From TrEMBL:
One of the Pfam families matching this protein, by short name: PALP
Organism of provenance: Streptomyces evansiae
Keyword terms of this UniProt record: Amino-acid biosynthesis, Lyase, Pyridoxal phosphate, Threonine biosynthesis
Protein's recorded name: Threonine synthase
Record Gene3D superfamilies: 3.40.50.1100
EC number: 4.2.3.1
Reactions it catalyzes: O-phospho-L-homoserine + H2O = L-threonine + phosphate
């Protein structure tokens, strides 16, 4: 029986680790590539979802974190720090436990989803809620890493990108070729940078014969790359991508230019519609930010930008359980019944 060993063991020859490196892993990667029936029908394409919410802490961040924490441990670090909209902090907290290190996380006050806060708490992270947004948190985290004995595990740490590029490898390994288009949500822009690197490496080595066009989507209220300027007060219900000054801005532009791709925006309303479609019609429960990729694909299709017959992969970056408030908000409360089959059947409309 083949047991998936985590991205470092599975792709060791393509990652910056030594033979002697002691790997810190929770078995991340090897996530499902799910055919999306409704999206395929709507677009006339062959659409797949790369379900990154299936990672150990529920988001794609684990791919980068296994690398970042493995490296930090190798270098003798005793503590790691990150700025986060929630998923990076959840991942850092879990992998730090694994490595017997201390984790410190800086999050924007009141702007991280409940599940993510719960993860950081239960893994014993030192949590500071900052009176500012993600961009302020990142500025602080960099300053602390520069001046104190703590190692920065945000995606400005290049080994994070190395780990995250393995998602592109998995897609090519599964499909036997790169897709025509790859669609992603964009926040700090590390992930689009990582996928583009992965696809380019496989093409350069002849594992794939081509690279896809990279399509990235920001939330309209937090779309600095689309607008071409820093957004001072970023807004969106997709709190994971509520970022006004992405660290990998230039790399995202390079991915777009080199791939003949696109960076555009989707409204919160479009994000929510895609969130509901994924859960209600594809059976895939994601957090709101993740739905930005699918919202973007649907927007582009409406604009006539999607030629039928193409193979398209949308990364859905985080698990829906991260943000339970969003799932329950505005929904009717389930009916209460006594322990009575007839009452249940009646309420379920089974009695004709
Ligand atoms: N989707 C989710 C669920 C995320 O958590 C993030 C980023 C993104 C998309 C965007 O990815 O930043 O590489 O462009 N979350 C970071 C965090 C910022 O702190 O967890 P990106």
């Amino acid at each position: 029986v083949h047991q998936w060993r985590g991205i470092i063991e599975e792709y060791r020859d393509r990652l910056p680790v030594e033979d002697t490196t002691e790997v810190v892993t929770l078995g991340e990667g090897g996530t499902p590539l799910v055919p999306a029936q409704v999206l395929s029908e709507r677009t006339g394409c062959e659409v797949y979802l790369k379900v990154e919410g299936a990672n150990p802490t529920g988001s794609f961040k684990d791919r980068g974190m296994t690398m970042a924490i493995t490296r930090a441990k190798e270098e003798g670090a005793k503590a790691v720090i990150c700025a986060s909209t929630g998923n990076t902090s959840a991942s850092a907290a879990a992998y730090a436990v694994r490595a017997r290190m201390v984790s410190a996380v800086l999050v924007p006050q009141g702007k991280i989803a409940l599940g993510k806060m719960g993860q950081a708490l239960v893994h014993g992270a030192k949590i500071l809620q900052v009176e500012g947004n993600f961009d302020d948190c990142l500025t602080l985290a960099r300053a602390l890493a520069d001046n104190y004995p703590v190692s920065l595990v945000n995606s400005v740490n290049p080994v994070r990108i190395e780990g995250q590029k393995t998602a592109a490898f998995e897609i090519v390994d599964a499909l036997g070729e790169a897709p025509d288009i790859h669609v992603l949500p964009v926040g700090n822009a590390g992930n689009i940078t990582a996928y583009w690197k992965g696809y380019r490496e496989y093409a350069a080595d002849g594992v794939a014969s081509r690279t896809p066009r990279m399509w990235g989507f920001q939330a309209s209220g937090s779309a600095p790359i689309v607008r071409g300027e820093v957004v001072k007060d970023p807004r969106t219900l997709a709190t994971a991508i509520r970022i006004g000054n992405p660290a990998s801005w230039q790399q995202a532009l390079a991915a777009r230019e080199e791939s003949g791709g696109l960076i555009d925006e989707v409204t919160d309303r479009q994000i929510l519609a895609a969130y509901r479609l994924l859960a209600g019609q594809e059976g895939v429960f994601v957090e709101p930010a993740s739905a930005a990729s699918v919202a973007g694909l649907l927007k582009a299709a409406e604009q006539g930008l999607v030629d039928p017959g193409q193979r398209i992969v949308c990364t859905v970056t985080g698990n829906g359980l991260k943000d339970p408030d969003r799932a329950t908000e505005g929904a009717p409360r389930p009916t209460v019944i006594p322990v009575d089959a007839a009452a249940a059947a009646h309420r379920l409309g089974l009695t004709g």
